[in-house]
Amino acid sequence: MAVRSKFSNIAFPAFGLFQVPHDFKITVDSIEIQKKEFGAWNSIDRYDKYKTLLERYISVKEEGQIFDVTCLNLSQLISKPVKWIIDARARIHDLSKKQEFKARNVRVVKVVKNAIWLHSVSYPFVMRKNILDPKEILNQSATIAYIDNVWVIYKFTSFPETVEMLKL
Fold it and tell me: What domain count does the chain have?
């Protein structure tokens, strides 16, 4: 059985912080964090069986607790310096320890609507339509990482780079 990565059990969307909080408390009906020692405790989730997890996070965010980033997929997560997240199943993940992943730089060979095909990868990558300009993306290369038996886009580059491993 293959070893799973630190990203393997994350359910998206995931709400992240760029620093690991000093402390956190989990109770039957809430999750609270203390970002810095002697800092204020902030509620990041209050359980309500009539609301989805996303609705609960939005209501807490309106009260002033703001996450550094919201990631809709693994590609977005690995491209940011996220150290700590709470995922869509209210599970906490400490991502502060780096892991090495096989990586390579490949050229973009085809773009159809919001799907991108990369050289030597047999399946397309689906991107958000608002960040995809087919004319420009065809002139790019992509750095991809092999995470949990799937290639994931790490970044796009204008010039090919030699990459064999990424520490994420």
Answer: 2
Please say whether the dihedral angle defined by the alpha carbons of residues 103, 105, 87 and 41, taken in this order, is positive or negative.
Answer: positive
Are 52 and 36 within one domain?
yes
Give the 3-state secondary structure of residue 131: helix
What's the CA gap between 45 and 90, in Å, rounded?
8
Question: Which helix or strand (DSSP H or E) is residue 60 part of?
Answer: helix 53-62
Residue 4, SS3 per DSSP: coil
- Which of 94, 121, 138 is the endpoint of a domain? 94
Residue 41 exposed, middle or buried by CB count within 10 Å (0-12, 13-18, 19+): exposed
State the residue for tokens 């919201």: 70
Q: Is 96 helix (H, G, I), strand (E, B) or coil?
A: coil
Kindly state whether residue 32 falls inside one of the protein's structural domains.
Answer: yes
- Per residue in 9-49, pLDDT tens? 999 999 899 999 999 888 878 788 888 899 888 877 777 77
- Close Cβ partners of 49 (under 8 Å, ≥ 6 residues apart): none
